[in-house]
Amino acid sequence: MVGIVLVSHSRALAQATRELVAAMTGPGLPLALAAGTGENRAELGTDATEILEALQTVLKEDGALLLMDMGSALLSAETALGFLEDADRARVRLCAAPFVEGAVAAGVSANLGLSLDEVAREAEKALKQKENQLGVPQAPAPVPAAEAAFANGAEKSVEAVILNPHGLHARPAAKLIQAAGRFKDADITISNATTGRGPVSARSLSSVGGLEILQGHTVRLGAHGPHAGEALEELRQLIAAGLGEEVSPLPAAVPQKKQEKAASTPRGEAVAQPLGGGLALGPAFFADAALPEVAAAPGAGADAEAKRLEAALATARKDLTAEYGKAHASLGAERAAIFEAQLLLLDDPALVETAQSLIKEGQAAPAAWRESAARLVAHYRALEDEYLRQRAADMVDVGRRVLAALGVSVPPVFDLPEPGILVVDDLAPSDAASLSPRRVLGVLCRDGGTTSHSAVLLRGRGIPALVQARGLLEALRAGTTVAFDGTSAEVWIDPDPALRQKLEARRQAEAAARAAEEKAALEPAVTKDGHHVEVLANIGGEKDAASARAKGAEGVGLLRTEFLFLDRPTPPNEEEQVALLEKIFDAAGKMPVVVRTLDAGGDKNLPYLHMAPEANPFLGVRALRLCLREPELFQTQLRALLRAGAGRDIHLLLPMVSDLSELRLARAALETAHAALEKEGRPHLWPAPLGVMIEIPAAALLADSLAREADFFSIGTNDLTQYALAADRGNSALAALQDALHPAVLQLIASVVRAAHAHKKKVAICGEAAGDPAAAQVLVGLGVDELSMSPARIPALKARLRECAYGDLQALAAKALALENAAAVRALFAKK
Ligand code: PEP
Ligand code: MG
Fold first, then answer.
1. Which stretch of DSSP H or E encloses residue 209?
2. Which end of the chain, N or C, is surrounded by fewer C-beta atoms within 10 Å?
3. Is the dihedral of CA 11, 13, 17, 20 positive or negative?
4. What is the dihedral of CA 726, 732, 734, 739, to 10 degrees?
5. Phi first, then psi: what are they for 74, rounded to 5°?
6. Alpha-carbon distance 391 to 27, whole Å?
7. CA–CA separation, 765 vs 760, rounded Å?
8. 380-418, pLDDT tens digit by residue?
9. Residue 766 CA, closest ligand 1 atom number
10. Is 95 a catalytic residue?
């Protein structure tokens, strides 16, 4: 891989640029810095010796590219090159590209394995996108041979709509380019079919950036060669899945950005945008999340104040990391990422260095920090881009946190004296995460956006909220009763007593239903006629295990172990796996845990296994098939599972089994692991119950023979449905077919239950259908013993089952087997 050296006068600039590059490429890129001079490289300047050392760390066979910021950086770089042997010098290129844009483009293309010439060319083109956007007139650029060929028409093409809220911006574009780069012989091109721009090479970040692809735009991908079809399909799926970002389908006929419709009052005026949640009703309390004023006080000298600030930053960092952990456990990884973003803000060199230089000018740490934070808040608020503008609330949040750590009194703005509606200009994410839903019945935001971090958190906590309610708030006075529906955005200001009564009854009914579900979460799910359905949790790690217990899980029905293996350059070793598994098992306490062996392949690629591209990865070398072909990988995992499971209630589960021979091979591998551990005298779980996932129709049809040797079954309805109906689970165009309530899937499940029970084995469901209240009723009616789902869904699901009679569910499920399609089954259960 081509190495990169960033030569800059400023260490901070080089470090920040490295961060930007890493955000696009992930770890593993050979990139070194040569920046700053003097002690700790804190002074501005460049140093030829450091450049030479940096070069030597990244210069391998493929060569290295040097990016320099200005003036004497070039001189120092040339001096450094003078010390190299001729052969090495021939493999080093000094690049005239702009420093930051060039580094990002070079990083992405080096990561793709492009040659030194190609990486240099990509870097040099990097300014073009910005120039296009600013309308700088362009000289007609010579079309590189490769792109000229693309323009002549590709053999195959597909189209896809970009769902990402901010379009194909740098991060998703980098993901797309990396995926395209894996198909080296497919010559993939991309064009913006909505605006007519392109085609350009899909391996060039700068060219793709120049297409200005926004949310709702259709892109056309073209490809040549023997792998063209599979390459295009993989890219199409990646785009549909959001290229690493959370996306949802666009509403029909509103394909452009900002598609949310402004909400209306009953009188039809546009007043706000809904964030979700039910009905909120209560007195209005106005609050303001702002940076508190800091009294001017003399400092204890620049050095002492600088240290004080550093200590406060460290405290804030620790607190934020803890908040991240809490949010991860209760709200999930995606929502917790908000706090990760704030951690980055906390380390923002612009912010910290401004504060430090104000301290040098004589200010005390609190005043210096407040001013630096206030400048950045003002900067964000002045930006055109709505998404970036919303980061102002994050900055206020980070600013307040550090001020508190510096001993400034930061009033908790959102402590309501009694339950009511919180009215704010904007809400900082940490406040959104810490609001008590018992006191804060709803939130009205004057500004804010539907994509802000606070919005994401409010949704996750189920607090009804409206944003961009400026017009509405003008008519609202503190203490006035206000009601609104967080979903429809209907608003009632000072409703008359009769209406208030009606609204209050509606709110109470909604809230009571939710509260009752939560309260009874720890009670078992027993139907009216006394049938107990075991409800368990699907988890992915230690934090989920803790929340599973709190939400009423009776056990862990599925621990996906993929997280141990994904997103890393090498597979985890045995000790590492044992340590992580033990932590999860400890967090699960006394609950039984079903651990699934590695389910990689399909849409979960493991870079270090160098898996060959497959035309249909979901029908490919996935899960157990992969483990059986990688005996070392499998043995390591099995040994780790047995060791971590010693003395605990742990059950092993095999994904993607198609017949008995595979179960036997897996059992033999497990016995090998046991024998070796026995010989080494290491304590471990034995015998280890070994279950089979039923997620391939073949396994469902052969359930009788599998049930003889498997200790239990767990049906993966997500895969079973996609394979039974030949409907790719990631293809939103086939949504109607991807319903586990399709009678074809139900018939398979019914026969699996019959076979398992005939051999006195239990059957669980661990696909998404288990947590869907309607589907769960059908599945219980078919006789499944256990349902395993994401922890948040447990309370409502248990409540629904308690309202049912098992006898009724059995009768309805029997009828469902004979219906025409999934919609008919849902209609049958809706009538119940
Ligand atoms: C399933 O297929 O239903 C299942 C639970 O496994 P996964 O979603 O991890 O493929
Ligand atoms: Mg599966």
1. helix 205-209
2. C
3. positive
4. 80
5. -65, -40
6. 26
7. 17
8. 777 666 566 667 778 888 999 999 999 988 876 677 778
9. 5
10. no
